[in-house]
Design goal:
The chain is of the alpha/beta class. The protein is about 45% helix and about 10% strand. The strands form six sheets. Strands 3-7-6-4-5 form a five-stranded parallel β-sheet. Strands 8-9-10-11 form a four-stranded mixed β-sheet, sandwiched between helices. Strands 13-15-14 form a three-stranded antiparallel β-sheet. Helix 2 packs across helix 3 and helix 25 crosses helix 26. The longest helix has about 35 residues. The protein is globular, with a radius of gyration of 33 Å.
C-alpha cells in the first residue's frame, strides 16, 4: 500500500478501503481512471476539442443544411437557365432555321406523313438542343436514330443485368461514354427467345449473359451503390442483405423495428402437381386479403403487388381476383391509381415495387401429401436470383402465403442453391430476424460505444433501451422503447460514434442520415460524446426531458394561444391618400405613375398581400367602392408590370417585394379581417412550425385542427383546409419541415 501511495496510485486503492469498490473491481476501476485521465489530457491539449460546443456545432450543421438546400435549388435553376439559353441564342435560330421550320410544320400537321425516324433525321442538329436527355429503349435507338448522327456524350443503361450485349451495342455505338447500372445478383435476360447456339471454336468472342457481365469481365471501373432506398422497414431487406450482399447494403431501422414486416401465413393448401399446377387455397386466402385491404379506408391507400412462383398460379389469381373485385365493386380502387395492383410471376417482376407485396409460393404437398423439391425456375442454376428479386419488391410490408413450411424441405435431397435459399426465406418469414441473427449485432458486447452507456443510464431511469440498433453498416447509437407501446421505439439517440466515423461525407453524417430516419418516422435527438463525457447527468436529463415531452404530446395539443404569441403582430394598414376618380382615370397613361406610387406605398407596408385585395384597396383609396371591371383590370395590369414578385399560393395570387419571413402571423382587426385564402403562405407556415416544434411530430389532420383553434378559423372551411395543406406541402418542399413516410409532420 505504501508503495502504491508513493507511486501516486492511492486513487486506485482508496475506494477499496472506504467500501466504494469490491476487490474484484479494482483492476477495471484502475483502467477506467487511467483512460479517463488520458482522455481529459487529450481534450485539454487540443484547441478544437477543448473549445468544443455542441450548441455551436449544431448551429453550424443547421446552416450547412440550409446552404445545401439553397445550392440544390440554385443548381436546378442554373441547369434550366443554361438549357433555355442554348435554345434562344440568335445564331442558333439562324443556323437551324430550316430544321425549326420542319419541326413546326410537323407539329401543326400532327405528324401527318412523317415518321419518327424521318423527324429525327431532319432535325438531327436541332434535337440535341431541344432534348439533351432522351429516354429510349435499345430497340428505339436502332429504329429512330441514324448511326451517322452526332453521338451522345453519355449513354446510361439501367437494369443492365437483364440486357443482352447484342441489344446494347447499337446504343453504345451512338455514345462517347457509357455508364452501365445493374445488379449481378438479380435476374439475367430471359433466354426464351434466344438460341442456345455457342461457337465452340471461338468461345472468347461469345457474349456473356448480359452487358453488365461483359463490362465486369472487361474490368471496367466499378462503383458500388450500397444505400438501399426501397424498403421502409429493415426486415424487408434484411434477408437479402444477409444472404446475397454480405450485409454490405446500408439500410436504416424503423421505429417499429421490434416487429417484423415480413409475415408468414400457412395456407394448408394442395399443389395440383401434374394437373393445373395451381394451389387454389393459397390463391383464395390471398384474394380474401386483397379484398379486406381495399375495403379498409386506411390500408386502401397502400399499393399492392402480387408475386407468384409460376405462371399457372399467376393466371388463376388474375382471373379470380378480377371476379372478386367486380363482385365487391372494388375494381376502381384496385386499378384506378398511380400504382394499380399487379399480378406477376418471378420471371417478370424485376423493376416493379409496391407498398405491399403478397407472395404466393404455390408449391407444396400434393393431394397425396407428397412434397417433391421441384420448384420450377427456383431449381435452376440462377434460381436464387429470382428469389432475391421476388423478396425485395415491397416498400412497407410483405405477406408470404405458403402450403409448405421450411421444415418440410429436406436439403439432403437437393444441392440447388435456390431451394436452399427458399427454405431459409420461409424460415425467416415465419420466425423473423432471428434467422439472420448471425449478422444482427444489436446489443452485442463488441461495440460498446457511447450509445451503450447512454442506454444503460436511461435504463436506470426506468426506460427500456437498445443500443447499436440496426442490421447493417448504419446503426442508431441508442433507441428508447415507447413506454406506451412496447412494439415500437419512441426515440433515436444519435451520437458521433462509429456510424458517424464511418460516414464518408459531412452531408451523409450530418444531414442525410437524420433526414432518412425522420422520413421513416423516428424522433431523433443528437447527443455529442464530448458533452456526454464532460457532464453525463446533464445529457441524460436532456434525453429524459425530451422523452417526457414526446409522451406528453402523444395525446395532441390544445388551443393555448401562448404557442403562437411570439409570432403575432398587428396587421399594419397602409395610409393611402384619399382621392376621387372614375374608371377612366386608370386607363390614362398620364396617371399610371401616380397609381404606381400608391401601389408601392401599399406593398411596402402590407406585403405579402393578395393581388385582388391590393386592387380593391387601391380602388377604395380613389373612392371607388364597387369594383368596376375596367378599372380593376387596369390597376391589376399596372401591378403586374411593376416589377413586383407575384406568386400563387394555393389558388390565390399574392404580391410582394422582399423575401418571405416565416416568423410572423399578422392579427386582423374586425373591420379588415382576411379570408383564409387571403392569408399568405408564410404566415400559415409560421404557425405550422410553431406547432410542430412544440409537439415534435403530428399528423396532418391534427395539425389542421390545432391551427384552426389557434387562428380562430372554421376548420370545416374548404378555403382554410386548402390553404393549410398548401402551406404544409410548401414548407416540406422548402425543407422547413418534413412529412415522413408514416404521414407525420416533424421538423427537418
Amino acid at each position: 500500500i505504501e508503495s502504491l501511495e508513493a507511486d501516486g496510485l492511492s486513487f486506485a486503492i482508496d475506494p477499496l478501503f472506504n467500501g466504494r469498490l469490491k476487490a474484484g473491481a479494482i483492476i477495471p476501476s484502475f483502467r477506467k481512471k487511467v483512460y479517463f485521465n488520458y482522455i481529459e489530457m487529450i481534450i485539454k491539449d487540443d484547441a478544437l476539442l477543448s473549445g468544443f460546443s455542441g450548441a455551436v456545432l449544431e448551429d453550424v450543421i443547421d446552416k450547412f443544411k440550409r446552404v445545401l438546400e439553397h445550392y440544390e435549388k440554385l443548381t436546378e435553376q442554373e441547369i434550366n437557365y443554361r438549357l433555355l439559353e442554348r435554345i434562344n441564342r440568335p445564331e442558333l435560330s439562324e443556323a437551324l432555321s430550316l430544321e425549326i421550320l420542319y419541326l413546326q410544320r410537323a407539329a401543326k400537321s400532327n405528324m401527318r406523313g412523317i415518321t419518327l425516324r424521318k423527324l429525327f433525321d431532319e432535325t438531327k442538329n436541332l434535337l440535341p438542343y431541344l432534348a439533351p436527355c432522351m429516354l429510349m429503349s435499345p430497340i428505339s435507338v436502332a429504329q429512330y436514330l441514324d448511326m451517322d448522327a452526332e453521338m451522345f456524350d453519355l449513354v446510361i443503361f439501367d437494369e443492365a443485368s437483364q440486357m443482352t450485349t447484342c441489344e446494347a451495342v447499337g446504343a453504345i455505338a451512338r455514345g462517347k461514354n457509357i455508364i452501365v447500372v445493374g445488379d449481378s445478383k438479380q435476374l439475367p435476360p430471359t433466354s426464351f427467345f434466344i438460341t442456345d447456339y455457342t461457337d465452340e471454336d471461338n468461345l472468347e468472342q461469345e457474349d456473356l449473359e448480359s452487358i453488365l457481365e461483359d463490362c465486369l469481365a472487361l474490368g471496367l471501373a466499378e462503383k458500388h451503390l450500397n444505400w438501399h432506398y426501397r424498403s421502409q422497414h429493415q426486415s424487408l431487406i434484411a434477408f437479402s442483405n444477409a444472404m446475397y450482399y454480405g450485409n454490405n447494403l446500408l439500410t436504416f431501422p424503423s421505429p417499429d423495428e421490434l416487429e417484423s414486416r415480413v409475415k408468414f401465413k400457412y395456407a394448408d393448401g394442395v399443389y395440383e402437381r401434374g394437373e393445373s399446377k395451381q394451389n387454389k387455397r393459397e390463391a383464395e386466402m390471398l384474394i380474401e386479403d386483397v379484398i379486406k385491404r381495399l375495403k379498409n379506408e386506411e390500408t386502401r391507400k397502400q399499393s399492392i403487388g402480387i408475386v407468384t412462383f409460376n405462371s399457372a398460379q399467376q393466371a388463376f389469381i388474375e382471373d379470380n381476383l378480377m371476379q372478386a373485385l367486380i363482385k365487391n365493386k372494388l375494381d376502381t380502387a384496385a386499378y384506378d391509381s398511380d400504382e394499380p395492383i399487379f399480378v406477376k410471376n418471378l420471371e417478370n417482376v424485376q423493376g416493379d415495387e409496391r407498398d405491399v407485396i403478397l407472395f404466393s409460393v404455390g408449391y407444396g404437398p400434393d393431394k397425396n401429401g407428397k412434397l417433391t423439391l421441384n420448384f420450377g425456375p427456383i431449381n435452376q442454376a440462377n434460381g436464387w436470383r429470382r428469389l432475391n428479386v421476388a423478396v425485395t419488391r415491397a416498400r412497407s410490408e410483405m405477406v408470404v402465403y405458403s402450403s409448405m413450411t421450411s421444415g418440410m424441405i429436406d436439403l439432403s435431397k437437393t444441392n440447388s442453391k435456390g431451394v436452399s435459399n427458399l427454405k431459409a426465406f420461409l424460415e425467416y418469414a415465419d420466425k423473423g430476424k432471428s434467422v439472420v441473427s448471425a449478422n444482427d449485432r444489436i446489443n452485442t458486447g463488441d461495440e460498446k460505444g457511447v450509445g451503450y452507456f447512454i442506454a444503460k443510464d436511461l435504463e436506470k431511469l426506468g426506460y427500456e433501451c437498445k443500443y447499436n440498433v440496426g442490421v447493417s453498416g448504419f446503426r442508431i447509437d441508442a433507441a428508447v422503447v415507447d413506454p406506451k407501446n412496447k412494439k415500437k421505439f419512441i426515440l433515436a439517440v444519435m451520437s458521433d460514434g462509429r456510424t458517424a466515423k464511418e460516414s464518408k461525407t459531412a452531408r451523409d453524417r450530418n444531414v442525410l442520415q437524420q433526414y432518412i430516419l425522420k422520413r421513416l418516422g423516428w424522433n431523433v435527438l443528437r447527443i455529442w460524446s464530448l458533452n456526454y463525457f464532460a457532464n453525463p447527468k446533464r445529457e441524460i436529463k436532456k434525453i429524459k426531458d425530451y422523452i417526457e415531452k414526446l409522451l406528453s404530446k402523444q395525446s395532441g395539443i390544445g388551443d393555448d394561444k401562448k404557442l403562437i404569441s411570439k409570432l403575432v403582430k398587428n396587421y399594419k394598414q397602409a395610409n393611402l391618400k384619399s382621392e376621387t376618380a372614375d374608371a377612366e382615370y386608370f386607363l390614362d397613361e398620364n396617371n399610371k405613375k401616380a397609381v404606381l406610387q400608391k401601389i408601392n406605398a401599399l406593398i411596402n407596408v402590407e406585403e405579402p398581400i393578395a393581388l385582388k385585395s391590393a386592387v380593391k384597396k387601391i380602388l377604395n383609396s380613389y373612392s371607388i367602392q364597387r369594383v368596376a371591371p375596367k378599372a380593376a383590370k387596369a390597376v391589376e395590369d399596372i401591378i403586374r408590370n411593376a416589377g413586383l414578385i407575384i406568386e400563387k399560393y394555393a389558388d390565390t395570387e399574392f404580391v410582394r417585394k422582399t423575401p418571405l419571413k416565416f416568423n410572423i402571423l399578422r392579427s386582423d382587426d374586425s373591420e379588415n379581417k382576411r379570408a383564409p385564402s387571403e392569408i399568405p403562405v408564410n404566415e400559415y407556415v409560421a404557425v405550422v412550425i410553431a406547432i410542430v416544434e412544440d409537439v415534435i411530430s403530428i399528423y396532418r389532420s391534427d395539425l389542421i385542427d390545432a391551427m384552426s383553434a389557434l387562428m380562430d378559423i372554421n376548420k370545416r372551411s374548404q378555403e382554410f383546409v386548402s390553404a393549410v395543406n398548401f402551406a404544409i406541402d410548401y414548407a416540406d418542399a422548402q425543407g422547413l419541415i418534413l412529412v415522413n413516410n408514416t404521414g407525420k409532420i416533424m421538423m427537418n
